[in-house]
Amino acid sequence: MYENPRLVISFHRVESQLVLFQDSWPRLEKWFSKYGSLVTVDAAQGEETVYLEVERILEETLHKVRSSVGAACILRRVLWTNEE
Asked: What ranges do the domains of the chain cover?
């Protein structure tokens, strides 16, 4: 059987990156949890359930970001108006 050397190299790169990520995960989890920015999803659930949960999390995050950016803009306007 013929194996494409590029694919073999790519596979080994991906595999090594996954192993590095897996080894680093406990520290990453601790760091992100410290700042309250870690959300986990149980991937053992059905595909549709996981998809909907990730979608919900992304929508909540986007709403928080938009709200904080909006609040910062309002605060900037208030401060700028008060300086005059």
From this structure: 1-36, 39-84
